Amino acid sequence: MDESGRRVVIDSTGRIIAIEEPRRERFRERRARFGERGGAIIDAPPPPGVTLEGRVDFGPRSADPYADDGYDRERDYGPDPVYRDEPRYDGPIEAAPLPDAGSEPRREAELPPVQGPDYPPAGTADTQTSVDDLLTDPGAAGTAPAEGRTITESDPAPPVEAPKGKNAEAEIAALQILLDRAGMSPGVIDGRMGSNVNKAVAAYEEKFGRSLPTGDAKALAEELDATGGPAITTYEITAEDVAGPYVAAIPSDYGEKAQLPEMSFERVSERLAERFHMDEEFLRKINPGADFNRQGTRIKVAATGENVKGEVAKIIADKGREQVRAYAADGSLIAAYPSTIGSSDTPSPSGVVQVNRIAFDPNYTYNPKVNFKQGSNDKVLTIPPGPNGPVGTIWIALSKPTYGIHGTPEPSKIGKTNSHGCVRLTNWDATELAKMVKAGVTVEFAE
């Protein structure tokens, strides 16, 4: 600890790699400055920005899309018997929710050892979450031939008309934000057309029974008005945003990861990009010259609105479209998310499974006796929770051992590059889904 009570983490050379503010003090400061909801969404008119058919896209909005939406896990799900009553396993994954201020202590939930798929080589044991995030390392047990390959969808969504002209990038971003508000996630908001936008539009049409005028700027502006106003709002960077905690860098070596206090963000801009569902590069692009490290800086961010809510009864993990769709008991579509679902070399399951348990902010445990050999690490390591952890901020365990739906530290790659069998979503999409599912929900893997 330093003289201010902050936790300072240094490496073996004496270099500071992380500074962690006392959590309770940060929480008190946030309440004192911003009240219960936190954040600082500015209602004052911002300076003109990119326009949508003559409209100022970067206009005011009062809702904080990442603030508390009223969700309470204990209230909504009860005492969570999945964690307390199920048999404990000796598998290499440990997952447990981080407690909110004043909440119950952390509870652990462990997942069983792997029993498939074809990777790693026969005769070894692994957890699918470890396989899913295996680093391609010459010293590892085997290689990861499919990881990082560009995805080729076998059943892609029909391409949609794209906005054109000098304001095309702003209009595409507005389209992505409109889709996000509707629960039809386009993944990261980056002002670019692509397969993630196409599949989100197709899901929108399934949910609402009408086509979306993707190439009509005026019609898109009217849709935005009907769903909460301009696509972009102004946000003021807070003391809590600047305080972090942050790490200087996320190492690739698991031994170094395990020494960090959290798998935190590295930068304020990275934190805010995830909070507002944006590609970090795009966030910086629409805020040229902004000082993200200064409290009080006003920036333009996506006005994505509140999370979609509902009770999910069935999930379709569509391998051909690389998309997860969540349905209510009456068969109506609640939400859809671009996803990364395995590969031809290391496929995800087929058929029907169920949700077993849900872990928010899971730890990740590496055990070289049952996991792959990563670098020179030969001891059990516990990698702490955080958005840059191997499975992101969410782990939805499935009834097929070691398979799950989880978050990712690399949201820009969702739906674009292969994984190793699990179902990856962006952290924000995985969180939204996790709050709508319970143990026993059906998950169907569609070819």
Structure description:
The protein has 447 residues and is of the alpha+beta class. The protein has a domain at 73-152 and 309-446: L,D-transpeptidase catalytic domain-like (Beta Barrel). Helix content is 22%, strand content 18%. The strands form six sheets. The protein has a nine-stranded mixed β-sheet with strand order 13-12-11-21-15-18-19-20-14, sandwiched between helices. It has a three-stranded antiparallel β-sheet with strand order 1-2-9, with no helix packed on it. A three-stranded antiparallel β-sheet has the order 3-8-10. Helix 5 packs parallel to helix 7 (217-226). The longest helix has 14 residues, at 168-181. It is globular, with a radius of gyration of 22 Å. The N and C termini lie far apart (53 Å). Residues 313-446 form the L,D-TPase catalytic domain. InterPro entries: LD-transpeptidase, LD_TPept_cat_dom, Transpep_catalytic_dom. The active site is at residues 406, 422. Pathway: Cell wall biogenesis; peptidoglycan biosynthesis. It comes from Aurantimonas manganoxydans (strain ATCC BAA-1229 / DSM 21871 / SI85-9A1).
